[in-house]
């Protein structure tokens, strides 16, 4: 057991799941939300010459995905340190 | 120098580079090549993963599909990048902590069952095989154009090269070769895009260029490029470029199947088993996606530029059609491969492209990226460079896939399941036979494809989504899931998805229209439904048969935090 107590193990896992769910919510909203479900409505706005919904589907969602992973990497490293379960 | 000679030289040079790197880095790491990447920086590993991942479908076919499908093509852009988020957040770190080499190994050990392992192997072979069939078609398109032969001959030549490239040895495992391949393919993709963007809109960045206004001296100058494209499409009886025609449910389903499938592809997952630490597995996924996005953010701009250029070249600035005698060389060159066809229906000697009965052109979507530099009248060396990039993309992916197929057959299936007593020599012999059989079969599918490269590949993702993804996710996040449930889920998921695809693509292709689809979901997107069925079946069966044993649940607990991750071990 890498954790000092059962409670700490549970707390770590809970924080981990919380972070993942938050990031996946953004992932879902940007791609499925802006890029697919709301695309027609967003297309009435223009963004640097692009229809906004179209831009999210072909550019914006991809940029968001990259940023999400790097946020995850950083936050998880902090979490691992907080619970002292990081690698040596 | 003509294009053909230049192509030989540049493709030849890149080949020499890959082989030189393979020999050089091999001498440096005599150990087991699976851990060769153990000392590799996550940035390098990310680059290699990107090369492994971006196949002929990404390089050759995707921009062409977007050019013809417009907004609907976004499913490939979002689908093939969004999967990395799932991979980084939900799979890679835990599978790395688990510390095995193959997906069937994880399934077999987590679900403490030989049956589960065997089913996973069969799924892995099916998925990799479908995927490689798409690659063969891609290689064939490249060779048929630049050697000026029929597409079938091109596929055959490509197959021979891929086979020797793989059988030559452990090249696949050598990360630095793939780093070189990434550089070649990214460079080859960006150079023509930048040239064309400068010419069409005056923007050096193609990613913003295709949203800008058309530059002076080009047909439609002063208008926004995408607006002009929408306008042209309307005049020619095509769907508006920035709006789709597919129904929302189908767009949703295809995107989801591609994303989830990405996270379930055996040859992608394997890459994260071999990094030294859990932290590196997370970082590698981030870097891989960053490098992939360099190409994926460029693809839609290439698509839009190519479409405008195609219409301008064929129909002329006044949309009256261009006389065939004045047609540029690239049209005549691609005609030799039968990938462009012109039929003068109204006998006016002029070509015309449209979405209605006036249309006289048949343009294969898979040629758009390769023909793009010629369409935009770029120097011959750029054309040759793109050919080299296409070959790099197809080779790096096919080699990895063939390795998955041959090790699955020889190691996972024969040695560990059916014939545990075979010797190492026999095992190696079977690996070669399996690779040869896979190449032969996929050559046949490359010549008689059930769709365009990207579409064939999309089926592989559907199969991965319906089989592996739920089993792995539940294996990590639902520790009580038992073997019976997981097996039932995988079997029902993959059988359902496969049956749906085979029915609409092979048995009864005439019925492949929206009215006949289940909930309006096309065969490309059916993997999403297969995945949901897999989850439901697994959960219900688990509820009827009880929890997984305590030691398995403890095992699952232990993969949920990074501390104590050792190096990956074979068995």
TrEMBL record, chain A:
Keywords: Membrane, Transmembrane, Transmembrane helix. It comes from the Bacteria. InterPro entries: Na_symporter_ssu. It comes from Pseudidiomarina insulisalsae. The chain crosses the membrane at residues 20-42, 54-73. The keyword Ligase does not apply. Pfam families: DUF4212. The lineage of its organism: Bacteria, Pseudomonadati, Pseudomonadota, Gammaproteobacteria, Alteromonadales. This is DUF4212 domain-containing protein. Residues 9-86 form the Sodium symporter small subunit domain.
TrEMBL record, chain B:
It is a multi-pass membrane protein. It holds the Pfam family SSF. The keyword Nucleotide-binding does not apply. The chain crosses the membrane at residues 6-24, 53-71, 77-95, 116-134, 146-167, 179-200, 251-273, 285-306, 380-409, 430-447, 453-478, 485-506, 518-541. It comes from the Bacteria. Keywords: Cell membrane, Ion transport, Membrane, Sodium, Sodium transport, Symport, Transmembrane, Transmembrane helix, Transport. It is found in: Membrane. GO terms for cellular component: plasma membrane. One of its GO terms (biological process) is sodium ion transport. Its main location: membrane. CDD domains: SLC5sbd_u4. GO terms for molecular function: symporter activity. The keyword Transmembrane applies. InterPro entries: Na/Glc_symporter_sf, Na/solute_symporter, Na/solute_symporter_CS, Na/solute_symporter_VC_2705, Sodium:Solute_Symporter. NCBIfam families: Na_symport_lg (TIGR03648). Belongs to the sodium:solute symporter (SSF) (TC 2.A.21) family. This is Cation acetate symporter. It comes from Pseudidiomarina insulisalsae.
